[in-house]
Specification:
Pfam families: PDZ. Residues 115-181 are annotated as: Disordered. InterPro entries: NHER, PDZ, PDZ_sf. Keywords: Repeat. This is Putative na+/h+ exchange regulatory cofactor nhe-rf2. The protein is globular. With 215 residues, the chain is α+β, with helices and mostly antiparallel strands. Helix content is 11%, strand content 25%. 29% of the residues are buried. It has a single domain, classed as Pdz3 Domain, CATH 2.30.42. The strands form three sheets. It has a five-stranded mixed sheet. It has helices at residues 52-55, 77-86, 98-106, and strands at 16-21, 31-36, 39-47, 63-67, 70-71, 90-96, 119-122, 193-198, 201-209.
């Protein structure tokens, strides 16, 4: 597969360079990152409403091509998460939706953040109007995102447990919680589920669960 799509056909679909910037009203970037057993690559799972990821144009189902200018096709889930976290409070992800991904695969091309047709989308911040950074392809941003357009998620910190001082007696009809003991397998990377926070309620929640995995 060619890695130099310098002469793109006019009908070549545009990848999106999503510049995510953390905002004080939201914890993390607001997206889940997961791998799929049936196809290679790292994919965007749930994108939280009002999050930096949504405001930077990320969509559920997008495949990540680059993280901060580096192609991550041969990297593991853990390596991609580390790349996203390497730059404090912001990250740039080159992503393609399924149709765009299929087009580049069919034409044996690899999208790059430096090609001319890339759509640059940035999380709006208070200082957005003071100075607009120039994207890697050297062109001015094609979109200024004011509307909410649908990440490895910036994984939320483990919540602190609030221990009750006394153990209350449960009524007989109390539903049973589940204690899930997960053990990693040698032929599967990770536990196979995504963790996310929801803006409208407290706590941490399990998102997408991969097929035939430890969890």
């Amino acid at each position: 597969m060619s890695t130099t799509p310098d002469l793109l056909p006019a009908e070549a679909p545009a990848p999106r360079l999503c510049h995510l910037i953390k905002i004080p009203t939201f914890d993390g970037y607001g997206f889940n990152l997961h791998a799929e057993k049936s196809r290679p690559g790292q994919f965007i799972g749930k994108v939280d409403s009002g999050s930096p990821a949504e405001l930077a144009g990320m969509l559920e189902g997008d495949r990540i091509v680059e993280v901060n200018g580096v192609n991550i096709a041969s990297e593991s889930h853990k390596q991609v998460v580390e790349r996203i976290r390497a730059v404090p409070d912001e990250t740039r992800l080159l992503v393609v939706d399924s149709a765009t991904d299929a087009w580049y695969t069919e034409h044996k091309l690899v999208p790059r953040s430096t090609q001319d047709n890339v759509r640059y989308i940035r999380t709006p911040t208070d200082d957005s109007n003071k100075s607009s950074p120039t994207p890697p392809n050297g062109h001015a941003p094609q979109e200024a995102v004011a509307d909410s357009l649908p990440s490895t998620q910036d994984e939320p910190d483990e919540p602190k447990r609030e221990e009750a001082s006394e153990s209350a007696e449960l009524p007989p009809d109390a539903p049973a919680p589940r204690l899930c003991h997960m053990t990693k397998w040698h032929d599967f990377e990770g536990y196979g589920f995504n963790l996310h926070a929801e803006k409208d309620r407290r706590g941490q929640y399990v998102g997408k669960i991969d097929d035939r995995q430890p969890c």
